[in-house]
Amino acid sequence: MRTRPRRAVVTAVALFAAVGTLPSAAAQDRHAQHHPSHGGLSATIRYTEYGIPHILAKNYADLGFGTGWAQAADQVCALADGFVTVRGERSRYFGADAASDSALSSATKNLAGDLYFRGVREAGTVERLMAEPAPRGPSREVKDLMRGFAAGYNTWLEKNRITDPACKDADWVRPVTVQDVAARNFALAVLGGQGRAVDGITAAQPPVSTTPTAGAPDARDTARAARELFAADTADMGSNAVAFSGATTANGRGLLLGNPHYPWQGGRRFWQSQQTIPGELNIAGGSLLGSATISIGHNAQVAWSHTVATGVPLNLHQLTLDPSDPTAYLVDGRPERMTRREVTVAVRGGAPVTRTQWWTRYGPVVTSLGAALPLPWTTTTAYALNDPNATNLRGSDTALGFSRARGTSDVLDAVRRTQGLPWVNTIAADARGHTLFTQSQVLPRITDELAQRCSTPLGRVTYPASGVAVLDGSRGDCALGSDPDAVQPGIFGPAKMPVLKDAPYAENSNDSAWLANAERPLTGYERVFGTLGTQRTLRTRGALQDVSAMAARGRLTVRDLQAQQFADRVPAGDLVAADAATACAALPGGTATGSDGKAVDVREACGVLAAWDHSVNTGSRGALLFDRLWRRLPVAQLWKVPFSAADPVNTPNTLNTASPAFATALADTVAELRAAGIALDSRLGEHQFVVRNGKRIPVPGGTESLGVWNKVEPVWDPAGGGYTEVTTGSSYIQAVGWDGGRCPVARTLLTYSQSSNPDSPHFSDQTRLFSEKRWVTSRFCEKDILTSPALRIVRVRS
Prior knowledge:
alpha+beta; 10-stranded mixed β-sheet; 8-stranded antiparallel β-sheet; 32 strands; 22% strand; disordered N terminus
C-alpha cells in the first residue's frame, strides 16, 4: 500500500478535519449544508462547478458510502433500472416481451435477460466469487467499497424524494444489497462473453426427437457473422486514447488524452467524481454507473484511459453428444451429463415462467451468438460457451490499483497482479515522462497451436476470420490449460500480453495492438488478441496520422491535447472529397440517376463538396452532405488503391469514382436531403443536435466510418430536423499533464453531463460545453476545491 510523504499526509488529515468542522456562520452563509442522517458510515461531499463531487472519507467503506450516495443523487433512475436487471426482475415490473436493458446484456427481451440473471443469482455465482480470497477474488478494500456503496445508495433513497420522471413513484426503485452491487460488476465483466449470448443461453433446449437432425452451421456464414459481431463492438462502445512521452512534450513530462466512446443514455454512462482518503487515496475521473471505483482517471502523478480491445473474451466447445441422450456429451469416450438449471421468473400480469438452462464443464450450452450466428443443438452436436470472465470479479481491484499508482510501472504492475480487465486496453502516461500501452485482458487461453490442433471444421474457419475458437469438446487434450503467471486457470498470464513501454506515443482506436505506435509495431501475440498486418479502420488511420505528426512536432502541452480532441478532422473527407467533387462536376448534364431510376440535378452538390472544409464542426457547411453520401458508398467498390501492410496508415486510398455506385449514391443523397427540406450547404449544427429541456444543442463530431477522433453516433430523423439524438460517442474526456507543481494540469468534459434527471441543474450544462468545445478545469488539489465559487458541502451519514 503506497502512501504520500509524511508532510502531505499531515496536511491532508488537517484539511479533512477542517472540512469536517466547516460550519462557521460565514461558511453556512456561503454554502448549502445538508445532513441526511446520523451515525454509522459517513462522508463529506464537496460539490464544485458542473455538479462534480469531491468525496472525502476516512476509509474505504465510508468512501463507498459517499460514492453511492452521490451517484444516487445524480442517477437514481439509471442505477435502479440496472439493479432491476441484475436481480432478474424486469419481466415482473415491465413485462416479459418488452425490450430489455441493453446496458448490461445483449438480451433482446426482458424474459431472456431475467432468466439469465436470475439463473446467475440462484446458482450463487457472485457470492462464490466474492468469497474467493484475493487476488482471485475481491480485496477487503473493494468489498468495503461495495458495502459502503450499497449503504450510501440506500440512505439517499431513504432521505430524498425522487423528482426524475423516469422513475418518480416507481415501485421498482428499491434498496439494494452488496450482492446487487457485485452482480452489476459481474454483468459488466461478462458483457463480451455470456452477456453477449443471453438469448442463446436461455433459449437452448435439447431436440425433442431422437431422429438425427441436420443443421451444422455453414462455416463461412458463421465466420462472417462472428467477424461482423466482434467488429460491431465499437458501434456501441469504442474509444481513442493516446499517451505522449517526455521526449515529445514541452517539459519532459507525460501527457494523456482519453476519449472513450460509450452510450449517452442508460446504465453504461460515466459519472465524474474525485475520491479522497487522506494519506491513502486521491483520484479523479469517470466511473461507470454502479461502480464504486474510478474507471478512467488521473491522480497527482499518473493518468490512464481505456479503449475497447480486439481480444475475443470467449470461445466455443463443440460437443459430441451421447447417441442415446442429447443432454449428455462425450469426453474421451466417456459420457458426462449436462447440469440442469431450472429458473423461474415472475411476470407482470401473468403466471411465472420456468425454463431450463443446460450447463457443461465448459460453460452453458448456447444455440446462438446473436440472430446472425446460429449454433443449433441437434441429436449429435451442441455448443458450449466458455467465458473466463464469469469467474472474474477483479476489475474493481484493477481500478483501485490504478488509482494508487505513482507511475506507469505501477499501472502495469496492477494489471499483472489483479488481472481483472475483461474487454479493454490500457493507455497511460505519468509525470516522469513515461508511457504505456497494454492489452491486458482476461482472455481464454487459446494459443494458435491449440486452435490448429483442436479446432473443429467450423473452428478452422471462424478462428482465423474472427478470433472465435471452436474447439473439439470431446477431447480432454483440447483443454485450455494454464499459464504459471495467470491468476486463474484457462486464461493467458501477463507474460503473453502485448505491451509497449516508453514509446514517444502510444495510441489505440479500437484496432488491434499491432500499431499502438506505427514506428514500433507490436507482433508475436496469438490470434485471439487481434490481427496483425490487416487493414486498419479510418479512425485508427486518422488518429495515427494526427498523433505521429504531433509527436514529431514536439513541445506538446495539454493545449495540444485539447486541440486534437476537437480538431474534428474527417479523414474520409481528406481522402475522397476532392475526387468526389471533381467526379460530380464531370457528370453529363449535371445529373445522376438514383436507385429509384429518377434523374437528379446534382450540380449544387458539386460546389458544396468542393468548398467543404473536411471537418465536422457545428458550423461546417457540406459536412452533412458528405456524411450522408459516405454512408451510401459501397465498401467493396470504394477504393482504387488496395490495402498494403507495408503502408497501413495510408492505404487503401483513392476513390473509385468510375463505379456506377458513386453517381447513384450521390443522386440518392441529394434527393434525400431535398425531400427533408435540408439545404445541401447547411451548417452541420443546424441538423446534428440533441434536445435538452426543449432546447436544441448543436453537436460536433462524426460517425465511426468517417474516421473522426471525436466520434458521435446520432440517430437520423429527417422529419425531426436531421440527426436528433446521440446514442453513443465521446463521453468522459480527459486531457492530463503535469508542470512540476503538486497539482496535475487536467481538463475534463463529461459530454452528456452528470445527471439524467431533466430537473437537475446538471442535466445538460456540460453538454453545452461540448457543443462549444469548452472544457472543465479540474479542481484536484484541496486549495482549488475549497475556493470554488460553486462550492457546496454535503455531509452524509447512515
